[in-house]
What we know:
Elements: H1 4-28, E1 33-41, E2 47-55, H2 60-69, H3 71-82, E3 91-96, H4 99-110
Parallel strand pairs: 2-3
Antiparallel strand pairs: 1-2
Helix pairs in contact: 1-3
Amino acid sequence: METTRQNKISRLIQKDLSEIFQHQTREYYKNAMITVTNVRVSPDLSVAKVFLSIFAIKDKPEIMPLVKARKNEIRYELALKVGKQLRVVPSLEFFVDDSLDYIENIDKLLK
């Protein structure tokens, strides 16, 4: 069970990462729409698991390696945004959130 502090930090990181991805989409990610769906922070606040949904592109598996390759740059930009609120910016781990694809697939099967 997550503490109140973990929840607050998760929401802060989610908001700021979504802004970062919104500004970098055209430049680095082939105009894919990247949405930060969830962020989970470890109890010691050192690791943040970031779940991303990728839309508006046919080659979704190509985007995740691009995101992971820029992990340090994204963390640096996040540090510029949250540097006054957090003492240490957590290291970022990115995962694909395919829950929307799963829901869409179930809707197709039910029709």
